[in-house]
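Dear Dr. K.,

Following up on our conversation at the group meeting, I've run the structure prediction for HAD family phosphatase from Nonomuraea rosea. I'm pasting the input sequence below exactly as I used it, so you can double-check it against your construct before we proceed with anything downstream. Let me know if the numbering doesn't match what you have in your notebook.
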Amino acid sequence: MTTNTAAPGAGPLEAVLFDMDGTLFDSEPLWDVSLAGLAEMLGGTLSSETRRRVVGGNLRDTARIIQGDLGVEADVEESAAWLLERTRQMFALGVPWRPTAEAVVESVRRSGIPTALVTSSHRTLVDEVLTQLDPGMFDTVVCGDEVTCPKPHPEAYLTATGRLGVDPRNCVALEDSPPGIAAALGAGCLVVAVPEDGEALADGHGAVVVPLETVTVDRLISFLAARTG
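The predicted structure tokens came back this morning:
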């Protein structure tokens, strides 16, 4: 049985906070479809560089980046709304877990450690995912359209830890993108990055970078202890 303690002088692991897209769920291929569709609707083609730039971003910034890279002047709100609905349609068909991700969340819950889902995605997309999961898998959920300042601002993570009543300095956040890492670090969390492409985060951006399949509760506790012990 896992003991939720850290090194002498360090606080216990009070909560584990999970990003959604690309961290727990293999939803990026679904975003590929909707993002390419938006570019096509705007009269262009989504480049691989533009696709890389919008990972982890919010809808308005994503629409703005795509329009700018295509050299198109269009209504950002309309583009964002189109992207949201197309992505919702894709999510409704089913969003698969990344390998071992479900087991990681379940192991945290079995250890009695609170969990939160902290995502840049809008509530309409998150609800499509939550309907596919067992009820109560996350103690709280913070969505991108439920905060004033989305990632990379720390508001979403501070909102989650506030709801849980925990100290963000005693929490671990699992992320996969620079905006998400910046948000969690800004909130004071220890960040463990679990990108599908480890080379994409070669320098870690301030996070500990490990393969998702190696994440265990004991390892998360040890990471926190190493930082604060």
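Two things stood out to me. The domain at 28-92 is CATH 1.10.150 (DNA polymerase; domain 1). The CA atoms of residues 157 and 184 lie 6 Å apart.

Best regards,
J.T.
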